[in-house]
């Protein structure tokens, strides 16, 4: 039986069970959950970097967004709060839509 030792989506045990598989799981405490979300986020970002199609990119972005939703309660935050901070930061410093690539900044 392969050993995964990683965070999985909440319904994966039911998917494994429905296919006749056996599994072992445990519920992580808050600090472990946060660590594993960070690990999973890193994994999903790497997978996003390797995508070559629109659909694959959207699938990986969906996983990243789901992890963002999962981490918010750990930080006692809501998606609305996150969105307000995102908008404020965008208004102050801009977004990333224009593709501006900074080459160099000289001393005055």
From TrEMBL:
Listed name of the protein: Phosphoribosyl-ATP pyrophosphohydrolase
Source organism superkingdom: Bacteria
Keywords: Hydrolase
Presence of the UniProt keyword Hydrolase in the record: yes
Species the sequence originates in: Psychrobacillus glaciei
One Gene Ontology MF term: hydrolase activity
